[in-house]
Each structure stands twice: as structure tokens, then as C-alpha cells.
Amino acid sequence: MPHSHSDEAAAGDERLKAALWYSLGKTVDSIAIDSNINAAPAFIGALTEMVAAKIAQASTDMEAFAKHAGRSTVHTKDVILLARHNEALQEILQDKAETVRKRDKSTAR
């Protein structure tokens, strides 16, 4: 029986969430060891759900920014716009974008 597109998308989402859980778990464990505390698996699971929801919302927002600008592709400026409420993050993203632009300009010659 062939799999539907939505089944494949759901399986992909689950694989991404599993990778996120693994990565967050490693980070939390490292911090917990350094801080001499223990992080319960339920905490890592809840953190994973929260981060996954935030990622989903961020992607929806960036897609909306691109669509509003008449584009079908998310650009760097959409990512920077997403960070507009966090000045420190916005500055880091702008600096990184400028570094990449300069590098791309120098390698295009």
C-alpha cells in the first residue's frame, strides 16, 4: 500500500523531532553535569516540544514575511526581521549576514 504525502511528512517531522530531542538532550546533559544537577527525561521531552513549536512558528513567520514581500523564498532579511524583538540577536544576525555577503562578494570575482 503506497504511503500518502501526509504520512511521509509526518514521518519526516518525527525524524526531525527525534534529532532535536537528541541534540537538546546532549546539550542539557552537558550543562547538568557541569552544574552538578540532574535533568529528568521528561524535562528534555518538554523542552523538545517547546523548541519544536517555536521552530514551527518561526518558519511560519518567515514564510509570511517573504510572501508579504512578494517572494516565494525566505531571504536573510526575513530571518533578521524575525529577531526584531531581540536586539542582541538581531545584531548578531546582521553582523553574520554582512560577513557572509562580504565573503560571497570576494569569492564571486
Automatic annotation (TrEMBL):
UniProt entry tagged with the keyword DNA-binding = yes
Query: Where on the tree of life does the source sit, at the highest rank?
Result: Eukaryota
Gene Ontology MF annotations: chromatin binding; DNA binding; protein heterodimerization activity
Query: In the UniProt record, which is one GO cellular component term?
Result: FANCM-MHF complex
The cross-references to Pfam families, in alphabetical order and at most eight, read:
CENP-S
Q: Which GO terms describe its biological process?
A: double-strand break repair via synthesis-dependent strand annealing; replication fork processing; resolution of meiotic recombination intermediates
Q: What are the UniProt keywords, alphabetically?
A: DNA damage, DNA repair, DNA-binding
Q: Which family does it belong to?
A: Belongs to the TAF9 family. CENP-S/MHF1 subfamily.
The entry's protein name is Centromere protein S
